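Let us begin with a simple case.
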Amino acid sequence: MDKVLKLRNLKVVFPSGHGIIRAVEGVDLDIHQGESVALVGESGCGKSVTSQSVMKLIESPPAMTRVDTIEFLGNDIKDYSAKQMQDIRGKDISMIFQDAMTSLNPVMTCGKQIDEMYIRHQGVSKKEAREYTIEALKLVGVPEPRSRAKNFPHELSGGMRQRVLLAMAFACMPKLIIADEPTTALDVTIQAQVLNLLRSMQKRHEMSLLLVTHDLSVVSNLADTVYVMYSGKIVEKAPVKALFQAPHHPYTVGLLASVPKLSDTEKTFSQIPGTVPHPMKKPSGCYFHPRCKFATDKCKNTMPPLTTLSENREVRCYYPLNLKKEATA
């Protein structure tokens, strides 16, 4: 498969009056054509900053961003100007943000906001754009699309607003969709509808997807490859099936164990002790060692490298778990 996105050594820091906030530290990411990649981890680990950096949406200042490569469709866009990025945002790379109510313009009708995508990137007239908008809304399952296009965001339900965002994201059939917690603030039933729609649209049009989430149940259904992030660093990378069968990093093991299961006869709730370290007060060595029951003096003093264990499997741990289990799976 052709590589759609190649990200190398991304670093993002936020200087403040109290010190340096190291949000992202040396992240590498690869996404191939038609592949669905999930970036998972607890809140505050740097997932959203990473995804927004791909589209160069992190303003500098206040942020300080350093990256060796942001290669999109074979072109290094690392040094693209704001004008050049505007030409590819929405057309070649689209983003679905967390909360539709804050992502949509409250003083413009939903239809007009989608119209702008076609007018800006395809050069069509307002009349033609509106017809394309109606078809886009119909495609994502919005009932009475011609009428809904005249509604303002506050006049629609949360599920309908999220479908409007999907229509905007898929409007110009981009090569890459970045979905940053696309089901935030939606109830479980609507979440399933939105995620199924996102997956079917992505597969139907052979687009690539970067899904940013902390919900592992979503990951199991949508992702092909998973990157696990902790405190600004990638700690594990694996195909989704292999990750769920045999997680190698203790943090990944803890994340999977914390998901409630219907088959749990003991009815106990498992959780990872402690919290994600403050980005200005990260511990020495492995950032996870204060929460890890397997940590040794080596873990406490030296940051482990991201080591390749097998094809498409990497882990940042001196003592990876479940190696025998993976070998026999």
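The second case is a distinct protein. As before, the sequence precedes its structure tokens.
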Amino acid sequence: MRNGHVPGWVKLLGVVAMLTVLALAGCGGGGSGSTLGGSSGGKVGAGIKVTVGSKKDADGQLLAQMYSLLLQNQGYTVTTKLGLGDNKVLDAAIKSGDVDIYPEFNGTALGNYNLPTTQDPQKAYQEAKDYYEKNFKVTWLAPALQLNDSYGICTSQGNATKHNLKTLEDLAKVANQLTLAGQTDFTNAKTGIFPPVAKTYGITFKKTVTIQESLGFAAVKSGQVDVNECYTTDPAIVTNNFMLLTDSKNVFPAFNPSPIVRDQLLQKSPAVADTLNKLAPHLTTDKIVNLIKQVTVDGKTVESVARQFLQSEGLL
């Protein structure tokens, strides 16, 4: 060895080691998991293409990004379309096959199809699940029942003081003097979330303005409107020092998210359900509020926030 001579047994071990490495490389062994365009050898999603979409809201984008990352980790080739559009756009997209999966809320689905709303999360989920399977061949996967991203009515502290607003009962007394800012899916007379609430409390506004939920806070602060639709998980309520009016009668329905998936994809790869169903137990209202804040207030990217959350929860 000292004079440079290499014994024959050492050479033989070297040849065996090299052949072993080559064999592993040929079968994809030792891979570290797939991303877009990467190797997915040996994983359940290898060779299967999936398109994941979302609506424009931050929580929808975060959930869709989580779905994408979980699927990529199982070898699926994923195209992610975040912020694709509103309810109508995503509803049409999953029916047509433009997207295979997107996060939907049970309360939203019931409102979209004029189904009876309920404050019972499990009942709302089952009603939506049954209706989508029967009519659209779309499956609702496991619901995150600890995450309730419902709707509400907000206003500035100044307006709350001026009109003595703390509850929706208080709002009913002065609503005919006020202007509401809300999205179409909130204010629509036939399918909107708010009309049943307005009927229960006897609320009639002087005027209603259609606007994105995220822009409602600025509209109130500038004096263009008096109150705005808001998501109960929106950190802008706190950062803008707004008041969420109390729904003492619990009329706003439950809104718990689920991945909804085209049956055609599940027939091709049932493992999609196993992969995504693991997420639901890890989602809570408090957790999603924190994640939304990181994106909308702290300026972090949806992808980085979603990835860090999945890693912290031991899902990646």
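Residues 1-38 have pLDDT under 50 and may be disordered. The domain at 49-148+255-312 is CATH 3.40.190.10 (D-Maltodextrin-Binding Protein; domain 2).
Keep these points in mind for the review questions at the end of the chapter.
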